[in-house]
Structure formats: C-alpha cells, structure tokens
Amino acid sequence: MDSIRLKARAKINLGLDVIGRRENGYHDVRMVMQTVGLYDRIIMTRILGEDIRIKTNIGFLPVNENNLVYKAIMLMKNKYNLEGGIEVDLNKFIPVAAGMAGGSSDAASALFGMNRLYELNVPMKELMNIGVEIGADVPYCLMRGTALAEGIGEKLTRLPDMPFCHILIAKPPVNVSTKLVYENLDSTEVESHPDIDGIIEAIKLKDVALVASRMGNVLESVTVPLYPVIDSIKKDMIEHGAINAMMSGSGPTVFGIFPDEQSMVSCQQFLRQKGEARQVYTTETFIP
What's the predicted TM-score (pTM) here? Predict the structure, then answer.
C-alpha cells in the first residue's frame, strides 16, 4: 500500500467532570465522549527519502514537529524502525482550538494510517497506548463511538451506542487555551458537578431527550465568564429548538442536540445571520 485516505472525526463531550488534580499538573476527569459526523480529510502517501511533508488548507497550522500528525508519524517511524518518507495532505473542517479534539483525531488517524501503510498489524490496544504519548484524547479518537473516559482521559470504557440525533456545531471567533482553563479551574471552588452516571443511564435507556437534559460541563464555569458569547450561542440554540446546548471540552465550541433536522437547519441559518459564530455546521452522532 502506497497511499491511504482517512477521515479524522470530531468528538463532543456529553458530560465533562473534573474530580481532582495530580502533582504533575494533570487533572483526573470523568467524561462521556461521543464521535460526530464532522471530520478532517487526510491522505497519507509513502514517498522516497525520509522527509515528513505536511500540506494543509489552514495557513496558520504548523507543518513541522509541532504538528500532532508529524509527531504521530515520527513516533511510529522511531518505534518500529520504519524507513521512507511520508507526505500528508490534511484538509481540515473540524474547528481549530475548539474543544472538539481535531488535532488529536488527526494524530489518531496518522497512527492508524502508518499501521496500514507499513502493514504492521499493530493491535488497536497497542496503538492506543502509543497515542497517550501524543495526547490524552488520542486513544479515544482511535476507539471512537460512545465511551466513558477516566484518569486523564486515557482510561476508556465503551458504552452502548448513543442513539442517532441531529447536532448543530457553532464556534465563535475566539480560541481558548485548554491549559489556561484548567489552571483557572484550580483557583476556583467547583460548586456543581455534572451527573455523569445519569448521562450513562440515559444512554443505556436510548433516551436522547434524557441524555440532553442531564448534559453538563464543569469547565463552563471558567470559560463562559471569559467568553460570554458562548452562553449567548447556547441560549440561541435552545430558543430555536434545541433540546439542550452545551460547550464541548474546554470550548469555545457549542453544540446543540435537536429533535429534528428542520429545527437544526433553521437554527443554523439564524446563527449565521446573527454572526456570533464564525463556523456553524450540521452533523449527527457517528457510530463506528
């Protein structure tokens, strides 16, 4: 195999709780993760030489060792003594610095791609262990689907599939530092924690409305006061038909769960006309 085409899918957090902080600065979390249909397109091609060349449609993205795709490829080359160069065409659609694990998903796809291009037959569990060296979300982005993430996000338990639902994604024109959000969370007392077990129970009951009603993200207590536009978009989604709306990850992306496609598309048109969100996409739950 000389070339492979991949879809690096985005994720949302149906629930995100922070339950502690480790001495090394990492945080212990409990999160319900869900893959959605939105994805980046990646083409990986073996080339002569030893270079790793990355082309992308986003001008400000690094294409060197600071890119997670580059790191994933280099990690596989070093770990398995792989020879030859790799050219990557990365066409991004997942909003950048948005709380949707776009970079982690790209890296996960690169690990998967290297495994296939070199016919290594590395088991998924081993790939996921390698992924942790790149970022805590990478193992989940390899697994995909509906999962409970614990530890720093790397301890994964597959959950029953989230029922199909319509999801609207809206990212305002601000970028959020995940590191800054977690540092500010440490300096405040968390008064309300999301009901992670309740969300899991609602998923098992296959009740989309119940899942939506129990969604919660403890990081909103930090990010929303810094960027009030997040709360404005949430309210707009709910006023225009969403069962519920919430910030994903550390933000600033907001997603809303809608009962039908018509109300979702109507809200998309409203948000685009209002202009608070620069990127507004319709999507749905994705089950691998």
Answer: 0.94
Q: Which position among 11, 77, 92, 234 bears the catalytic label?
A: 11
> pLDDT means per 10 residues in the chain (288 residues)?
96 94 83 98 97 96 96 98 97 93 97 98 97 95 98 94 97 87 75 93 98 96 94 98 96 96 98 95 96
Spatial CB neighbours of 184, under 8 Å, sequence gap ≥ 6: 222, 226
Whose CA is closest to 117, among 79, 76, 68? 76
Tokens of 124: 């998924």
Instruction: Point out the catalytic residue in the list 137, 171, 234, 236.
Output: 137
Say which residue the tokens 């409970």 belong to.
148
Active site annotation includes 137? yes
Q: How far is CA 108 from CA 10, 68, 87, 101, 219, in A?
A: 11, 9, 16, 10, 25
How far is the C-alpha of 285 from the C-alpha of 85, rounded, in Å?
Answer: 35
